[in-house]
Design a protein that fits this description.
Blueprint lengths: L6 H11 L7 E6 L3 E6 L6 E2 L3 E2 L1 H20 L6 E9 L9 E10 L3 E10 L7 E8 L6
Antiparallel strand pairs: 1-2, 2-6, 3-4, 5-8, 6-7, 7-8
Length: about 140
């Protein structure tokens, strides 16, 4: 299955339908199997203790899955998360951007299943891992 977007087109589409996230994320790599997304960490993403907050990591996982699904199904802004399970495994490196690696495990007619690993920039061990399921809207809805 071929992709419906280039990385630049995909990011532009997402920022068009979600202008509140404009400038917060960058797509580092996009292929049929994976998308790598960077969260540009700033003070707004930090929590007490000098680390990136759990909600910020969840948002990165969710946006990564959304981008992976849209890359395959095309401009369907109403694709929505139906399930997410996230494990926070270690403290992110303070002041470092976070990078996700999202893979598409299954793309059906109604549901898509993804797996996301999140890393502090330059680190080899993930700080979080998430499994997300997306509901794919019917064409034209």
């Amino acid at each position: 299955m071929s992709l419906h977007f280039t990385a630049e087109e995909l990011l532009s589409f997402m920022e068009g339908v979600f202008p509140q996230v404009q400038g917060l994320y960058a797509i580092e790599m996009l292929s049929e199997q994976e998308v790598h997304v960077r969260l540009k960490v700033s003070d707004m993403h930090l929590r007490p203790g000098g680390t990136v907050s759990g909600p910020s990591m969840f948002s990165l996982a969710d946006i990564s899955a959304y981008l992976m699904v849209l890359a395959h199904i095309g401009p369907e802004a109403l694709a929505v998360t139906t399930n997410c399970s996230i494990d926070f495994m270690r403290k992110p490196v303070a002041g470092q951007d976070l990078i996700s690696r999202c893979s598409l495990l299954k793309l059906g007619k109604v549901l898509a299943v993804t797996d996301v690993h999140i890393f502090s920039q330059g680190e080899d061990r993930p700080v979080a891992r998430a499994s997300l399921t997306y509901s794919i809207p019917k064409k034209g809805s």
